[in-house]
Write a structure and sequence with these properties.
The complex is a heterodimer of chains A (420) and B (238).
Chain A (H helix, E strand, L loop, with lengths): L1 H13 L1 H39 L5 E5 L2 H4 L4 H4 L3 H12 L4 E15 L4 E9 L1 H8 L5 H6 L16 E5 H6 L7 E7 L5 E12 L10 E5 H8 L7 E6 L5 H14 L4 E5 H4 L1 H39 L1 H9 L4 H37 L2 E2 L8 E2 L6 H28 L2 H5 L3
Parallel strand pairs in A: 3-7, 4-6
Antiparallel strand pairs in A: 1-8, 1-9, 2-3, 2-5, 2-8, 4-7, 5-6, 10-11
Helix pairs in contact in A: 1-14, 2-12, 2-14, 2-15, 12-15, 14-15
Chain B lengths: L11 E14 L2 E14 L3 E5 L6 H8 L7 E6 L2 E2 L5 H11 E4 L11 H11 L4 H14 L15 H13 L5 E4 L8 H18 L2 E6 L10 E6 L2 E7 L2
Parallel strand pairs in B: 3-8, 3-9, 6-7, 7-8
Antiparallel strand pairs in B: 1-2, 1-4, 4-5, 9-10
Helix pairs in contact in B: 3-4, 3-5, 4-5, 5-6
The chains are: A alpha+beta (420), B alpha/beta (238).
């Protein structure tokens, strides 16, 4: 084996230019895949944090069974009662991995500055819960780049009338911080209910479609407006780690069912259509790029090894004559190919590290589709997919040499020796 | 007790019977060997000679077990080689037969020492042991100073001596040399044949080589003249 390795390594040095060209094809292919994987990994991470912390979906969302499908038509029927909110909240809070249980209450209506009125959609949530949900939403690099800076919003725990309006909505109403407006909402029983509000802060939703109508209000204000004391339409659950999401959903569902509550629990991925769509799109692009690069690598290695085998036919005849079995010939050339591929992948890894460092250090930012703000272009080291690419490329590169090597091994010794 | 018998009375090391070798060249059939029978005994120093196209190389390939006859039998060391599959034949060959080629056929990226180590390592011998045996084989052919040289740094005569060391390092029963002097000048040709003769005498290894240079035939025990695929004469020298 050691001898085969030595022969294979020296075989690569024989035609250095050809080996170098093949090596570079593998290395740049590997780097292209790794960098794109790293970019998508960063995007997935950013979108996940945006969903969980930025949009405050938390990791799990609990509501009465049927709320997602029927709740908008008959909100009162699907609201959790004050008793249910308290009991379910306690059962969940007692579980390990649970960091926060936040009751939420959605509402919509009209908001007016006295001169003009427009519709709004709002989320009622406790100001303390906002602080907790928003913590841990950004990585150091993202924070440094200013990403989500304009998404910051704040509610005042001491003043339920203070609200946060999306930037577009605040601009439409010509409201500055501290400015006052009136909101008009239908209560659960259909009565009109109006209250004064004060603009605490405006924020960017990160989505052009919602940036002119969305608002966050204190849970107490939402309950007062809807006349729904102690009630909530859902509970947002924040966990200590996103990896526990599925496990905790199953556990909580079982626990609540045993306690007699008929509820449904959705994960943040299920609620974030944007995340799922972007993930699906990037996965498809990744698969496309991966296939192209893999094809190029296979063609390069197969071509290189095919030429090598032809050039060394007489040597193969000699080795066969002095005792190398057919399997030994196949092993020799596949080893050579494997070495070429692995060295190419290692070189590709070094290129990845270098380019990644350069891009991350350059602090490049861009505006992605459907986004209201710039996001930094950052590249992660996606270890899982890099390892996968490494193993798959190594295997495919090795197999690419198998056919020419087998053809060489099958050749009659006297024909191989007579090859010119 | 065969060791005490004269060469031609001992059992043959290699015996071929009614061997024919037919090649298809397009739609033409060429009979390179026509029902050739021959015994080669242990310790012989034998030359096969004849004009180009007489079947010398074909005979050497069959004797060296790197080609199979179209018809006929080849027995090596009492083993009927027809019953061996490719792997068994390869293993058999690696242990019992050494090869010296007209074009030396050294691996260009390996040093002289590594080239000589190669057959041992193919057999699975440990590196250190293979290195020691290969170094000793290079001493035997007078090339210990060139052990680290790559083949392209050696003269034609030196390369052929490395090839002889490679053939002998596994202690084979038989060394096949197909036109070993064809690419050498007369002085180097004489030296190579003398070296093979010396090894034949010192190690009792059987040598069979082909040549078309009649001057080299003075060194041999026995010479076989081939013409048109037939043995025309088989002469044992005094």
């Amino acid at each position: 084996m050691k001898n085969t390795f030595k022969l294979a390594l020296r075989g690569l040095m024989r035609n250095r230019r050809r080996s170098l060209v093949t090596l570079l094809a593998i290395a740049f292919g590997f780097a292209a895949i790794s960098l794109f994987a790293g970019y998508t990994h960063n995007v997935y991470g950013g979108l996940a944090r945006q969903s969980i912390h930025g949009e405050m979906l938390g990791h799990l969302t609990l509501s009465k069974s049927g709320m997602r499908k029927e709740g908008k038509l008959n909100p009162e029927r699907y609201l959790l009662s004050a008793t249910e909110v308290a009991s379910i909240g306690k059962l969940i809070q007692d579980e390990a991995h649970v960091e926060l249980v936040a009751p939420r209450l959605a509402l919509s209506g009209l908001v007016s500055n006295g001169r003009a009125s427009t519709i709004f959609i709002a989320e009622g949530i406790a100001p303390e819960a906002v602080v907790k949900l928003r913590s841990g939403g950004l990585t150091d690099a993202e924070r440094k780049s200013g990403m989500f800076e304009n998404m910051k919003m704040r509610l005042d725990p001491k003043r339920p009338d203070v609200v946060s309006l999306s930037e577009g909505l605040a601009e439409m109403l010509h409201l500055e911080v501290g400015g006052q407006a009136v909101v008009l909402v239908n209560t659960l029983t259909g009565q009109a209910n109006a209250l004064d509000i004060t603009l605490g802060q405006s924020f960017n939703t990160g989505n052009a479609g919602s940036n002119d109508k969305f608002a966050f209000v204190a849970l107490d204000l939402a309950r007062t407006l809807l006349d729904a004391e102690g009630r909530a339409d859902r509970l947002t659950i924040l966990l200590d780690d996103a990896n526990n999401t599925e496990m905790m959903r199953d556990r909580l569902l079982a626990k609540l069912k045993a306690a007699g509550f008929d509820v449904e629990i959705m994960t943040w991925q299920e609620l974030s259509d944007f995340y799922t769509q972007v993930h699906g799109m990037f996965d498809m692009i990744f698969g496309f790029i991966f296939s192209i690069v893999l094809t190029v690598v296979i063609m390069s290695v197969a071509n290189s090894m095919g030429m090598t085998v032809i050039e060394r036919t007489r040597e193969i005849g000699t080795l066969r004559a002095i005792g190398l079995k057919r399997s030994g010939v196949v092993r020799l050339f596949t080893m050579e190919s494997m070495l070429l591929t692995l060295i190419g992948c290692i070189l590709g890894l070094l290129i990845t590290v270098g380019v990644r460092w350069g891009i991350n250090a350059a602090e490049i930012s861009y505006i992605p589709p459907n986004s209201a703000g710039r996001v930094p272009l950052l590249i992660d080291m996606d270890t899982g997919r890099i390892m996968f690419t490494f193993v798959l490329m190594g295997a495919v590169g090795t197999l690419a040499a198998y056919m020419p090597a087998r053809r060489a091994a099958k050749k009659d010794i006297i024909d191989a020796l007579g090859h010119v | 007790m065969t060791a005490d018998l004269p060469v031609h009375l001992s059992p043959p090391l290699l015996s071929i019977r009614k061997v024919r070798r037919r090649f298809l060249l397009g739609e033409t059939t060429i009979d390179a060997l026509n029902s050739v029978s021959l015994d080669i005994h242990e310790g012989e120093f034998l030359a096969v000679w004849g004009p180009s196209g007489s079947g010398k190389s074909t005979l050497m390939n069959i004797i060296g077990l790197i080609d199979a006859p179209t018809d006929g039998e080849v027995h090596f060391d009492a083993q009927d080689t027809r019953v061996l599959d490719d792997d068994e034949l390869t293993e058999f060959r690696s242990k019992k037969i050494g090869f010296v080629f007209q074009n030396f056929n050294l691996v260009p990226v390996l040093s002289a020492l590594e080239n000589v180590m190669l057959p041992l390592q193919i057999q699975g011998e440990a590196e250190q042991s293979a290195r020691e045996r290969a170094a000793a084989a290079l001493v035997d052919v007078g090339l210990e100073r060139f052990k680290d040289s790559l083949p392209d740094k050696l003269s034609g005569g030196q390369r052929q001596r490395v090839a002889i060391a490679r053939a002998l390092v596994v202690n084979p029963r038989l060394v096949i040399a197909d036109e070993p002097t064809a690419n050498l000048d007369s002085e180097n040709s004489r030296m190579v044949v003398e070296l093979m003769r010396e090894m034949n005498r010192a190690r009792k290894v059987t040598f069979v080589f082909t040549t078309h240079d009649q001057r080299l035939l003075d060194h041999v025990d026995r010479k076989i003249l081939l013409r048109d695929g037939n043995i025309v004469s088989d002469e044992v020298m005094a």
